[in-house]
Design brief:
This protein folds into 2 domains: 13-200, Elongation Factor Tu (Ef-tu), domain 3 (Beta Barrel), CATH 2.40.30; 213-362, Rossmann fold (3-Layer(aba) Sandwich). The model is unreliable at 1-61 (pLDDT under 50). The protein contains 8 helices and 16 strands. By secondary structure, the chain is α/β, with parallel strands linked by helices.
Length: 363
């Protein structure tokens, strides 16, 4: 089985203690020494710096936040930087995180914003790739869901992380087309500048109810906001935030080696078995009841009644993120579920959206 080089040895956060903190030194990373990312322990816990210590390793939930983020749910940062005046961050880390048999490269990128671009879990950032288009104009920005908590992977509120799949396809003329921004981000090197705008988005933020049930539906890189959600709830420790609810993740990918952040997710599940559920739909390796490929809605169908009961509870929030095509498949499944109870899914979904309990971000 492919193991991402982002994954550290599986030392449980339950054993973390102040005498043996997990430390990463940004001076080393910024200086170009990125040969041993496993030492950063990116999988399963945030990192912190010796120079600006905001976390200390304590207890079962991992690392304790020593300072609150600048951005809050009451003060949502929006468009602090715009295309005509973007913020220039610096790439600190870029690593492929899928196996060679995965359909296309996908990388985890960490960008330093030096605390100038605060954001909340569930927001997106705009990236303006280097270079110009065919008309000699700067490339247009592309939006990416942020894959890190507000604290970032280092825990110092100075970085953001992105998970990006390299887009390469053949057009109707038989010509190879390479996505400008996705290829830029997959190829960006540590030390290279990255122009950023935003942050944007208010719809996909985490619910205020700390005892909520959060149902997360993702395909591929749509895992990004949910990684942030889960790390905040089950990895970081904040003096003013303790999630007591449940998070249920359904993740659809084509191959096993495409399961992004798998070790990280599995460690959260192991540490919080009553609060974390993980369900994978590996389309090219699993079969549905009809013998066809196994998609997200097939995994959900196995627990259909449970899902329908959850959707009717006022403290259940459903989030969907990923490829646009996933929406129709899930709607079809949901329509069948609702129909068994004589409920029109379109009307019911509209009601959920009005209550901000059904949030969708597809691309």
């Amino acid at each position: 089985m492919f193991v991402s080089s982002l994954v550290a040895p599986r030392t449980s956060t339950r054993r973390a203690n102040a005498a043996s903190p997990f430390v990463a030194d940004r001076r080393t990373i910024c200086g170009g020494d990125v040969a041993a990312p496993s030492s950063w322990l990116l999988a399963g816990r945030p990192l912190f710096c010796r120079r600006r210590r905001r976390y200390s390793a304590v207890g079962a939930r991992g690392l304790v936040a020593q300072a609150a983020p600048k951005a809050t749910e009451k003060n949502i940062p929006i468009n602090l930087f715009k295309p005509n005046a973007p913020y220039e961050g610096t790439c600190l880390y870029n690593k492929k995180i899928v196996g060679d048999d995965a359909p296309g490269d996908t990388c985890h990128v960490i960008i330093n914003h030096d605390g100038k671009l605060p954001y909340l879990e569930g927001q997106s950032v705009g990236i303006i790739p280097d270079g110009t288009d065919d008309r000699g104009r700067p490339h247009k920005l592309r939006l990416y869901s942020i894959a890190s908590t507000a604290a970032g992977d280092f825990g110092d509120y100075k970085t953001l992380s992105l998970v990006v799949k390299r887009l390469i396809y053949t057009n109707d003329k038989g010509e190879e087309v390479r996505g400008v921004c996705s290829n830029f981000l997959n190829d960006v090197q540590p030390g290279q500048k990255v122009k950023m705008t935003g942050p944007v988005g208010k719809e996909m933020l985490m619910p205020a109810d700390l005892n909520a049930t959060i149902l997360m539906l993702a395909t591929g890189t749509g895992i990004a906001p949910f990684r942030a959600f889960m790390r905040k709830a089950f990895v970081e420790r904040h003096p003013d935030y303790k999630f007591t609810g449940k998070m249920i993740l359904y993740l659809g990918v084509p191959t096993s080696s495409s399961l992004l952040y798998r070790d990280e997710l599995e460690e959260m599940k192991a540490n919080f078995p009553d609060q974390v559920e993980l369900h994978y739909a590996i389309s090219r390796e699993m079969k549905n009841k009809q013998g066809g490929r196994y998609y997200l809605q097939d995994a959900m169908e196995e627990r259909g009644e449970e899902i329908w009961q959850l959707l009717q509870k006022e403290n259940t929030y459903t989030y969907m993120c990923g490829l646009k095509g996933m929406e129709s498949g899930i709607d079809g499944f949901m329509s069948g579920l609702a129909g068994k109870d004589g409920v029109d899914w379109a009307d019911f979904k509209k009601q959920l959206k009005q209550k901000k309990r059904y949030l969708v971000e597809v691309y």
